[in-house]
Specification:
Helices cover about 0% and strands about 15% of the residues. The chain has about 70 residues and is an all-beta fold. It has a domain of about 30 residues. It starts with 16 loop residues before the first strand and ends in a 36-residue tail after the last strand.
């Protein structure tokens, strides 16, 4: 859910910051801060958020008939 309204503030995906590593972000208001940090100036940028990895497919429950067009 990248576009939901109740996003937990996090400097890693704030419009005002630029990620410099996995643990640090440069904020144009606060300077170098923790990527997990937050402040009242948080503005959500959905393009900075990475979606979770998809769940692995359990192929044992499917047969060849499930994939035929007949």
């Amino acid at each position: 859910m990248l576009f939901r309204r109740d996003i937990e503030p996090c400097c890693a995906y704030c419009k005002r910051g630029t990620n410099i590593s996995d643990t640090e972000t440069v904020c144009y208001k606060k300077g170098v801060v923790s990527a997990a940090g937050q402040c009242k100036s948080f503005r959500y940028d959905p393009l900075k958020r990475e979606p979770p990895a998809p769940a692995p497919l359990d192929g044992s429950t499917y047969t060849e008939e499930d994939f035929s067009l007949d």
